[in-house]
Amino acid sequence: MNHLTFQDGRRSLCVGVVVFAAVLLGFGSLAASDPVRKSGYTLGTETCGSGDLAFPKVQIDMKGGFCAGLVASEEDRLKFPRSIIQIPGHDLFVVADMGGWGHTDGRLLLLDPHASGQRFKELLTGVEYPFGLAIGPDKKLYASTAETIFRFDPLADNSRSTVETIIRHMPGRRITLPDGTKLDESAHPLKQFVFDRNGRLFVNVGAHSDDCITPAPITKPCAAAEGPSAMAAIWLFTPPSGGVFPALKPGDTDPPHIVYARGLRNSMALALHPNFPDAGYAFLQSENGRDLPDIFKPNEEINAIEQGRHYGWPYCFDVSTPSPEFKRVLQSGTYKSLCTANALYKQPFSLMPPHGAPLAMLYYHGTKFPELEGKLLVSLHGYRPTGSRVLVYDVDDHGFPKPSPAPVRYHVSCAADPTRSFQTDSGEVAAAPFEELIAGWHRVNGARPQGAPVGMTVAEDGAIWLVEDKNQTIIRIDRAAGDPPAPLPCDTRSQALIDQLAAFVAKDAQNKIRLTTVRKGLVEKHCVGCHADFGLKAGQTDADKDATVLRFMLSQDGWIYPGDPDSGKLRTRLRGIGAEKLMPPGGEGLPKTEPGYAALLNIADLLVAKMVPGTPMRVKLGLPQRKFLGKANKECGETPAAKVVVVTQRNAVDKPGFSRFFRPADPYLNGECSDDDGYYIRQEFLVPVQ
Fold this sequence. Notes:
Elements: H1 10-27, E1 36-38, E2 41-43, E3 47-48, E4 55-56, E5 61-62, E6 66-72, E7 81-86, E8 93-97, E9 106-111, E10 120-127, E11 133-135, E12 141-144, E13 149-152, E14 164-167, E15 175-176, E16 182-183, E17 193-195, E18 201-205, E19 233-237, E20 257-262, E21 269-272, E22 283-287, E23 300-304, E24 316-317, E25 321-322, H2 338-341, E26 350-352, E27 358-363, E28 376-380, E29 389-393, E30 409-411, E31 419-421, E32 423-424, E33 427-428, E34 435-440, E35 453-458, E36 464-468, E37 473-479, H3 495-507, H4 509-527, E38 530-533, H5 542-555, H6 569-575, H7 590-593, H8 597-609, E39 615-619, E40 625-629, E41 635-640, E42 644-649, E43 658-662, E44 679-682, E45 686-688
């Protein structure tokens, strides 16, 4: 797509509002005493903020003196929000909602946080992968698609009539590699960008793949990362005199660019010190490193960007570890000894938690939190135990984080060993220590989902705003009085439940075969590397491998709900359903290129559907939620209408009028019951699965 295309989304929005209103009218309302749940968060009566900027407080573990309020959620029809920025001089914000991966239904939305009713207005629709948002040197709002950067007026009566594109033809979703290979979906098409104070524009052009590994032996450099239009790079566009890029007219060519820095896999987090480009001031990038099976390798990076330098991808990772696949490339030519003894290479300024996936970075400047003034904030979006948090780095007078000698330790969520030191293959290394503004954001049944922070911005009043894509929320961070609440415990699926579920599979001859098929055809062939090593070790028997893979999948947050494959992430990610990105990368072509792949996905569904002995039944339509009880008659939570449960006793022997069902580690538990093996629900609430 070489230009912006917009579609009229107003009719669909209106229809959605009407349908939602009808649902409310048809189902009635919940009692005032019932907890409110939005986007997986259970909300009480406490608020964060003040006045008409007081929002329901969400239960995430914050640094003392801070709280988080839920401004918007999936109920506000957010789909996949990725970034947010305030309109200067107005209490209004623009939100980039990508809509999902593989779609061109992205939107730019206007948010009025003071509104008591509908807070969002659609400004632009049908936008391909909107992500970057920035205020330009002309004080106008700039945004990006996969291929373009444009400006527009979000306050105009018709915003689309004000769109002015300044760059049209950057590598986007669909690209042709130097060898002629055509990719329908480049691995990193999103465009993050920043302006310096002279109006120069720095743009992330992400790598086309995870690691540029081709069939061995690899004897030549990664072609897509070479030349004057290299990917895995930061491009620099310099405006004409006056410091503002002109709007492109039909037939105009893009402004010239140079490759400012190379070897950067995906620069989604960029930050310029306010004094940059004065000599010595920081231009920082947080690197999303390549995928390796080891959950603690490689580390993510903070890089100090300098013009003309190479930052390692795909040849080096961590501080100076050569990628073994490129051994021959590193023996001669431009990249000889790149990682260890080549002046072209600039090592990371500091390592960051491995697989943390930093997606936003900014310097805090505001009056609300004097203790944060000038410090560097970084959001970690990664789903592994090292992600889902917001970091705070102390920096020097030029904006660089302050490294400390080894060992420097970092937090790992819900792990037996809750901290680890930064390490490379050579041992412990120095790194910049950090505080955690948001530390505990692992999923807690009945309280919150796993955190998924992406974009951040600092409002004119000093409050910090952030968006979560997977949970479809916008959160505002404000000042809180008193001591912070105690951190919430880790209560994902227990080891006893994992043992029980594994035993169910082991006793079912058909499911044992399905598990082996999924392990060999899917996990080992396509998934190891992207999702750690699944616990697989050399020397294991096939039976051990099957059990290891099953236990790994059962321990992951939300991957599997036994008996209900439609609800788990295992199915939605493998099939590209919803907003999250299809897995494995490039999987959209596998049903056509790999015989039996479509059948393999069905086998995975059957493995989940048949995991627990019993009869799948669906929660009857009617009230939005149906209460269910534990063994001691405590109310344990509410299951939404249309959810599937596996009924083990249609007529519960110890509770007349109720059915007993199995749905462990469910997000609908409210915390009053343990993560037990069964619950009770009124018989009339259940209907057969069609």
